[in-house]
Design a protein that fits this description.
- This protein has 9 helices and 19 strands.
- With about 375 residues, it is α/β, with parallel strands linked by helices.
- β16 and β17 form a beta hairpin.
- The longest helix has about 35 residues, at about 345-380.
- Pfam families: DUF7330.
- InterPro entries: DUF7330.
- This is DUF7330 domain-containing protein.
- Keywords: Membrane, Transmembrane, Transmembrane helix.
Length: about 375
């Protein structure tokens, strides 16, 4: 059933002799729209405008949107209003539904927001069995009281472990620890507020001009993702590129699994990767990395402009990735397909997973044989 819809256009016109403004309510015809688009208009403030929905506009009416927010000159007002006629549009049905495509990988769509995507800080999750697959929104301006942090008994153990791994960065904004399971985390860092910078660091926020440059920011956003048996995938999002953001520190470790880290395009700082083999960088990230040194299976690069980093006295981002029996891949967000191809299992990964399984089966067989022998001995007695 066809649905007839009539709409009205609210056009604001002004008189040249006084400051009073007049609202004239009419219905635009296609000729009126073309007249509006072709007449010389000057910018002005509009008190109210009510435009019809875009799905009810014909191609002849669409030029009217380019005239939104403008005021007619008095000499053109009368001629334009004479061309206005009533019009009705009768759509045959609802507008066609087009599914919007969302950017991101399939793994990112499967992630659930931690606590309803509420901005938090000092997040700690420690599990023995089970995977962690969540999206975290971190507000570095939020500082929970120390008494609440001490209430978590696992925090002391996590801080001791963090000190052993990297003494310079003990404690973290997001800490994820799993013994048997994988970690798939996406961390979004919100920009720093001006009050937080002034109150905690005594620094001004973003500079008022391009010449003034603020001192390096002391606030940090640390992400620790550590697992023994399982893969690690970390995606870091620094938020707005032009906003003051906290220093981003990511540490991802695994013993038997693969490690993939997706850094934001604003990342600038040292990158250390270690694995059994050669760490891999994405085709987009590799040209931006300056090699520093290589010792064994560990390689160190610098991402971004080294001169700017030295001017900031080394207060930049930091990334450390390590796995003992797996592969390491580092790239930018949106390169999930390249990461999937680069992290395919090789002979080393197959052996690293098959040998422990064979040892576990062999141990279970010995335990079962001892148990059967004990039951047989009890029957004889």
């Amino acid at each position: 059933m066809a649905l007839k819809i009539s709409f009205e256009e609210v056009l604001l016109s002004s008189h040249e002799d006084d400051d009073q403004q007049e609202l004239v309510r009419h219905v635009p015809s296609p000729q009126f729209v073309q007249c509006i688009a072709n007449h010389p208009l000057r910018w002005g403030s509009v008190v109210h405008q009510a435009l019809p929905s875009s799905q009810f506009l014909t191609s002849a009416h669409r030029p009217l949107r380019s005239a939104m927010g403008r005021r007619l000159l008095p000499e053109h007002r009368e001629g334009v209003l004479d061309t206005m006629t009533a019009v009705q549009i009768s759509p045959t049905g609802l507008p066609p539904y087009t599914e919007t495509t969302k950017s991101g990988s399939s793994s990112a769509k499967a992630l659930e927001d931690w606590h309803g995507n509420s901005p938090l800080n000092n997040i700690l999750i420690s599990r023995t069995f089970g995977s962690i697959k969540n999206r975290f929104t971190v507000d570095p301006n939020n500082h929970p009281p120390s008494c609440l942090l001490r209430a978590v008994s696992a925090r002391e153990d996590s801080e001791e472990l963090s000190k052993k791994l990297n003494p310079r960065t003990a404690g973290g904004t997001v800490e994820l620890y799993v013994t048997y399971g994988r970690i798939d985390a996406e961390v979004c860092m919100l920009p720093l507020s001006e009050s937080a910078l002034c109150a905690r660091n005594g620094f001004p926020c973003c500079p008022k001009s391009e010449d003034d440059k603020p001192p390096p920011c002391a606030m940090e956003g640390r992400v620790f993702a550590i697992t023994t048996i399982g893969d690690v995938t970390v995606k870091g999002d620094a938020g707005e590129l032009n906003a003051c953001t906290a220093r981003l520190i990511i540490q991802a470790y695994s013993t038997w699994g693969q490690v993939a880290v997706f850094i934001p395009r604003s990342f600038q700082g040292p990158l250390v990767a270690s694995c059994f083999g050669t760490p891999r960088l994405s085709s987009t990230l590799a040209p931006l990395c300056t090699p520093i040194k290589e010792v064994g299976g560990a390689k160190r690069w610098f991402v971004g402009s080294l001169d700017e980093w030295l001017v900031d006295r080394g207060h930049g981002d930091d990334l450390t990735v390590r796995t003992d029996f797996g592969k390491v891949w580092v790239g930018y967000e949106g390169e999930e397909e390249e990461a999937r191809k680069a992290l395919r299992w090789g002979p080393v990964q197959w052996l690293a997973h098959i040998v422990p399984a064979v040892l576990i089966l062999w141990f279970m067989r010995i335990v079962l044989a001892i148990l059967l022998w004990f039951l047989h001995l009890v029957r004889i007695i």
